[in-house]
Write a structure and sequence with these properties.
This protein is an alpha/beta fold. It has a single domain, classed as NADP-dependent oxidoreductase domain (TIM Barrel). The strands form 2 sheets. An 8-stranded parallel β-barrel has the order 1-2-3-6-7-8-9-10, surrounded by 6 helices. It has a two-stranded antiparallel ribbon with strand order 4-5. α2 crosses α3, α6 packs parallel to α7 and α8 crosses α9. The protein is globular and about 50 Å long.
Amino acid sequence: MVTRFGLGLAAIGRPAYINLHRSRDLPGSRSVAAMRTRAHGLLDHAFETGIRYFDAARSYGRAEEFLAGWLDLRGLRGGAVVCGSKWGYTYVGGWRMDALVQEVKDHSLNQLVSQLAESRRLLGDDLRLYQIHSATLESGVLEDRGVLSRLLELSGEGVAIGLSVSGPRQAEVVERAMAVSVDGRNPFTAVQATWNLLQTAAGPALRAAHDRGWAVLVKEGLANGRLVEAGDAAGPLAQAAARHGVAVDALALAAILSQSWCDVVLSGAVTPQQLDSNLEALGVTFDDGELSELTELAEKPTDYWGRRAELPWS
């Protein structure tokens, strides 16, 4: 129902995000007006290149607002694109780069009801996928009958229900979500997870979800910029990219596209130039041996997520 690439708005909907080289990629003002202009320009370019899935969240600053405004300005309401969003985190950064806390987690039923109303006010019927934002075993959201019942009701209103997952226990959360039952029914039909050449642990669970008929979306395909940064992975990645005549980012994203269980890869680009480079992944094909070599770059889940936790908001 959507294109192989989608555009994630986490990095363009708020001034601070966890990604390397933000100051280089977003020079100048990061006022609301400046970020809105950047977001609309990027959305224009994404649409021109054929992208039809756009991914937001209540905690992505003004991402939903920017997306809704763009849909109105371009006359794209009514099914021209597919919009997804998420509930469960609230943006509390106050549009400040130096805010000590940027977002706060709350997986309660009250939060679902409140944030769904906000998402629908902005996106209306163009909201086609609604996801629990970073569901975990610890939050208890996958055992909360009130939440699950409301999500099941929402699925009957024409909105696909999914969950996004993060952290070293991604696979366990996906497996638990597949086992959820509310009156004999499971509300979920989609999952959004981190999978990249440095973090491949969720692969088997994502394959199981795909085999079950769920849509599988992949986020953080460049490991928050680490895969295009000089380091241990740069040598083999750079060599493989040179062989294929693409940049490292395209090669890394092509590795995700090559996974048979992957339906949509989310680009986290913040400029049209980055997006164009990402899309070069569509022309890359691997032989089995080459892909196996690249996946050997993967780190232990605890190491990977520990390093991610150390990355600053910038």
